[in-house]
């Protein structure tokens, strides 16, 4: 015996009777198609999509990868941290190009954090080195 590869997810009469759920067409396995929406459901869907797009509009766009900041931080003397920040920045750029915007934002934020930490620590190390070397020269 061979099993059929088509099925019906919901019967149209059942969804019309109770008003809950969406009707689906009977199609092959893996391909469910929603039945057309009634006018009242269509207007609700339009309202929901318009509010969703208005709140999500500022988030759209290409996320920042902070590559220039990561490259600039590589000149600070905290090499393990700034190299990892550079790697996160490159990974953020690659994720953005592949369409993973959430991953690109997350990796970009991490690259920014590591770059800023690297520059702050690098500045502290440089100031300490200069102040200790100046103090060491004054004793002679």
From TrEMBL:
Looking at the UniProt record for this protein, which Gene Ontology cellular component terms does it annotate, in alphabetical order? membrane
Q: Where in the cell is it found?
A: Membrane
InterPro entries of this UniProt entry?
Answer: CD225/Dispanin (IPR051423), CD225/Dispanin_fam (IPR007593)
Q: Which domain of life does the protein's organism represent?
A: Eukaryota
- Keywords of the record: Membrane, Transmembrane, Transmembrane helix
Could you list the residue ranges that cross the membrane?
66-90, 111-132
Chief location bin: membrane
A Pfam family (short name) is CD225
- Please report which protein family the annotation says this sequence is part of: Belongs to the CD225/Dispanin family.
Protein name as catalogued? TUSC5 protein
Upper taxonomic lineage: Eukaryota, Metazoa, Chordata, Craniata, Vertebrata
**Record gene name:** Tusc5
């Amino acid at each position: 015996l061979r099993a059929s590869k088509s099925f019906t997810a919901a019967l149209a009469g059942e969804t019309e009777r109770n008003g809950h759920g969406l009707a689906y067409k009977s199609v092959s396995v893996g391909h469910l198609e929603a039945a057309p929406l009634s006018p009242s459901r269509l207007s609700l869907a339009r309202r929901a999509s318009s509010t969703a797009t208005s709140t999500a509009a500022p988030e759209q766009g290409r996320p920042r990868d902070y590559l220039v900041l990561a490259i600039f931080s590589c000149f600070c003397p905290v090499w393990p941290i700034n190299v990892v920040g550079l790697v996160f920045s490159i990974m953020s750029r690659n994720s953005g190009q592949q369409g993973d915007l959430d991953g690109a934002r997350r990796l970009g934020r991490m690259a920014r954090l590591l770059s800023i930490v690297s520059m702050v620590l690098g500045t502290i190390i440089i100031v300490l080195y200069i102040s200790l070397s100046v103090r060491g020269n004054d004793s002679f």
